[in-house]
């Protein structure tokens, strides 16, 4: 039986899940969080679904064995590939995933044009196809596989000219012609301003706040909300276990989004 005073594990292929982590902390400031970034195997969006499932299973196995009371898959690609198998493997542990925030984007832009920026694997899997089919009749949904963007964000230096050039090549053709942009990868909120510089003044939609509310709901349902009075703690670990990598995580954690 999980302990309400245990920690919440959060993982992603790299730094992107830190955008979700920040929302989780805002919603649940008394919880202890342990973040793991699988930067040695990033980006997940360039891997097969079976590879992503195997990597996600290994991380979740380790977190649960270390006492995680819940696990947040802070990665759209890993959620699509691994959430359901992991829930079957751990029926007593809340497994919280993320998904592209297409519903709120469409509801806010009925009959408009909604750009969905995501990895190629996220866009290819059945989870996104079902989401697109459900909401695509109410707005024009334009999926854009953003090949190379996760890897570029992982390198930091987000104001460099080459990042702007990459975004221009990925979405520049949609400048001034879309009403909303779904950030369908947890890395992308860190470059909202850079995307806006390419597309113009657009509204963004991501899954951070919804994921945080879902985690709270699941912890409450399982009787696992922390009862401590102190502020929770946050720790970082990476499969690329270097001081430089962990320093990069800390820098992203300190960023305003």
Describe the structure.
There is one protein chain. It is globular and about 50 Å long. The model has no long low-confidence stretch (mean pLDDT 95). Helix 3 links the parallel strand 3 (68-73) and strand 4 (95-96). It has helices at 18-27, 49-65, 76-89, 102-108, 120-124, 126-135, 149-154, 161-171, 192-199, 208-221, 243-254; strands at 7-12, 33-37, 68-73, 95-96, 113-118, 140-145, 180-183, 203-205, 234-238. The strands form two sheets. The protein has a five-stranded parallel sheet with strand order 4-3-1-2-9, sandwiched between helices. By secondary structure, the protein is α/β, with parallel strands linked by helices.
Element layout with pairings:
Elements: E1 7-12, H1 18-27, E2 33-37, H2 49-65, E3 68-73, H3 76-89, E4 95-96, H4 102-108, E5 113-118, H5 120-124, H6 126-135, E6 140-145, H7 149-154, H8 161-171, E7 180-183, H9 192-199, E8 203-205, H10 208-221, E9 234-238, H11 243-254
Parallel strand pairs: 1-2, 1-3, 2-9, 3-4, 5-6, 5-7, 7-8
Helix pairs in contact: 1-10, 2-3, 8-9
Mean pLDDT over the residues: 95
Summarize the biggest pleated sheet.
5 strands, parallel
Number of domains: 2
**Number of discrete helical segments:** 11
């Amino acid at each position: 039986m999980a302990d309400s005073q245990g920690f919440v594990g959060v993982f992603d292929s790299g730094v992107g899940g830190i955008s979700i982590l920040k929302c989780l902390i805002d919603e649940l400031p008394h919880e202890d969080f342990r973040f793991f970034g699988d930067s040695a195997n990033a980006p997940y969006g360039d891997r097969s679904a079976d590879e992503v499932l195997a990597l996600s299973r290994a991380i979740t196995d380790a977190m649960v064995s270390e006492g995680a009371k819940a696990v947040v898959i802070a990665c759209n690609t890993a959620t699509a590939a691994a959430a359901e198998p992991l829930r079957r493997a751990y029926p007593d542990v809340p497994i919280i995933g993320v998904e592209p925030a297409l519903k709120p984007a469409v509801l806010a832009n009925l009959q408009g044009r909604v750009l969905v920026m995501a990895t190629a694997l996220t866009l290819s899997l059945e989870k996104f196809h079902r989401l697109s089919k459900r909401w695509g009749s109410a707005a024009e949904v334009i999926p854009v596989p953003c090949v190379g963007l996760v890897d570029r964000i992982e390198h930091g230096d987000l104001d460099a000219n080459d990042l702007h050039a990459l975004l221009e090549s990925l979405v520049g053709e949609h400048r001034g012609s879309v009403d909303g942009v779904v950030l369908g990868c947890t890395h992308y909120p860190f470059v909202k301003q850079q995307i806006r510089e390419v597309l113009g003044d657009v509204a963004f939609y991501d899954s951070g706040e919804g994921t945080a509310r879902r985690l709270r709901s699941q912890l409450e349902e399982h009787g696992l909300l922390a009862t401590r009075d102190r502020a929770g703690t946050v720790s970082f670990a990476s499969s690329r276990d270097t001081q430089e990598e962990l320093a990069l995580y800390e820098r992203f954690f300190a960023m305003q989004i």
